[in-house]
Amino acid sequence: MKLAATLLAAEGSNPLLPHTYELVVGVFAFAVVVIVVGKILTPRIQKALAERTEAIEGGIKKAEDAQAEAQAVLKQYHDQLQAARQEAARLRDEAREQGAQIKADLQEEARAEAQRIIAAAHAQIEADKQQALAQLRAEIGRLSTDLAGRIVGESLEDEARQRRIVDRFLEELENTNAAVR
Amino acid sequence: MNTLTVLASGASGASEDVFTPPGLELFDAPPLISGVAWFTKPVLLAILSTLIVVIFCWSAFAKPKLVPRGIQNVGEMGYMFVRDQVARPFLGKDADRWMGLLLSIFFMVWIWNLMGVIPVLQFPVASHIAFPIVLAATIYILKIYLGIKHQGPIGYFKNMMFPPGLPKPIYFLLAPIEFLSNLIIAPFTHAVRLFANMFAGHIILAFFSLVGFWFLFEKLTPLGAGLGVVGVVMTIAMTGFEMFIQFLQAFLFAMLAAMYIGNSLHADH
């Protein structure tokens, strides 16, 4: 090694021995870079990177908050929708119940009305029948007396007697009818 | 040593017609302006590298935007690389405090090395050992200063030479080895690794390009032409390889700096 160094030194360029002026320039060049890049510029980019990290984290936080809020609102809507559905179902049931009730009432009423009309009709018929019977009875009496008067030729003017005769006749008639039946 | 002697003598005694591979004269740096002895090519390139690093970093980092654009993107890529690959693995939570120094070292060394493949300039600054020595010495002084500051003057050497938990006789062997490796060999290899890589890379590139030039232009012969083509192809291939090595060495240099600083900050490693 020493021999090589001596040999090379003779040539004037031992690559393992530093030149003094290069050392000085090297120190100077390195110092400039360390001061400008290391001391002035690196803190700036570090600050920018820290700010960016913060911004990104803030953005993520914001997005997370927004998502959470959206979830909450969605849940609220779902709850409201559920409540509305239940309300609607309840109303539907109620309506159905009411409808059934109304239907039953109407049916009941109609039945009662029908009964009433039938009863009235029956009564009317009975009255008409009674009336007709009474009229018939009077008519028959008069016709019979007229007929009998004409046949007998004798005026049966006497009202009381006449009526008695008719009544008697009719009773006989009815009795005969009853006997025939 | 023999080869070096042969090379050295070959360089001086070469005849015109014989192909002479390039030797140490590649690294001779005569003054660019006669009379100004200190102003040589490596010095010029070192100053140029400083300007490039400062101007690049200034345009990238001087007014950083929250949303990066253009050159800031490129600068941040470099910053992220140094932070995630160099600083954080060795310094952990202390990484941000040392990023300024590590970023400076990484960019500086990389641009120094890149000078070796930039056309016309074509001289890796770090192939002159003075420049790696400046950086390695700075780290070496910083390492010892931080070690004594954080672990105490006795604690630093005790932690370095007598790591706890080993059988006593081992220390007779370990203590001198650790002392030697940490305080003498480490700074030496730190500087020489970078220097030697750039030195050898420059010789290889010069050799292949000279082969191409010699056999295709200086002495074009039917037999030699093939060799000249090989020389050109190899020059291109080795330039690509050299760019990879240049980046790797810059990364390694910064990484070792981070490792030394980390070891001084915390004893347990």
From TrEMBL, chain A:
Domain of life: Bacteria
Residues annotated as transmembrane: 22-42
Coiled-coil stretches noted in the UniProt entry, renumbered to this chain: 60-101
Single annotated GO MF: proton-transporting ATP synthase activity, rotational mechanism
Pfam families per record: ATP-synt_B
Membrane topology type: Single-pass membrane protein
Keyword rRNA-binding: no
Record's subcellular location: Cell membrane
One term under GO cellular component: plasma membrane
Keyword entries, A-Z: ATP synthesis, Cell membrane, CF(0), Coiled coil, Hydrogen ion transport, Ion transport, Membrane, Transmembrane, Transmembrane helix, Transport
Family: Belongs to the ATPase B chain family.
Oligomeric form and interacting partners: F-type ATPases have 2 components, F(1) - the catalytic core - and F(0) - the membrane proton channel. F(1) has five subunits: alpha(3), beta(3), gamma(1), delta(1), epsilon(1). F(0) has three main subunits: a(1), b(2) and c(10-14). The alpha and beta chains form an alternating ring which encloses part of the gamma chain. F(1) is attached to F(0) by a central stalk formed by the gamma and epsilon chains, while a peripheral stalk is formed by the delta and b chains.
UniProt-listed HAMAP family: ATP_synth_b_bprime (MF_01398)
Function: F(1)F(0) ATP synthase produces ATP from ADP in the presence of a proton or sodium gradient. F-type ATPases consist of two structural domains, F(1) containing the extramembraneous catalytic core and F(0) containing the membrane proton channel, linked together by a central stalk and a peripheral stalk. During catalysis, ATP synthesis in the catalytic domain of F(1) is coupled via a rotary mechanism of the central stalk subunits to proton translocation. Component of the F(0) channel, it forms part of the peripheral stalk, linking F(1) to F(0).
Name of the protein this chain belongs to: ATP synthase subunit b
Organism in which the protein naturally occurs: Acrocarpospora phusangensis
From TrEMBL, chain B:
Keywords, in A-Z order: ATP synthesis, Cell membrane, CF(0), Hydrogen ion transport, Ion transport, Membrane, Transmembrane, Transmembrane helix, Transport
Keyword match rRNA-binding: no
Membrane topology listed for this record: Multi-pass membrane protein
Molecular functions per Gene Ontology: proton-transporting ATP synthase activity, rotational mechanism
Transmembrane segments: 39-61, 98-123, 129-148, 169-188, 194-216, 223-241, 247-265
InterPro entries reported for this sequence: ATP_synth_F0_asu (IPR000568), ATP_synth_F0_asu_AS (IPR023011), ATP_synth_F0_asu_bact/mt (IPR045083), F0_ATP_A_sf (IPR035908)
Organism: Acrocarpospora phusangensis
SUPFAM superfamilies tied to this protein: F1F0 ATP synthase subunit A
Job of this protein: Key component of the proton channel; it plays a direct role in the translocation of protons across the membrane.
Protein name: ATP synthase subunit a
GO CC entries: plasma membrane; proton-transporting ATP synthase complex
PROSITE patterns: ATPASE_A
One Pfam family matching this protein: ATP-synt_A
HAMAP family: ATP_synth_a_bact (MF_01393)
Family according to the record: Belongs to the ATPase A chain family.
Annotated gene: atpB
Localization per record: Cell membrane; Membrane
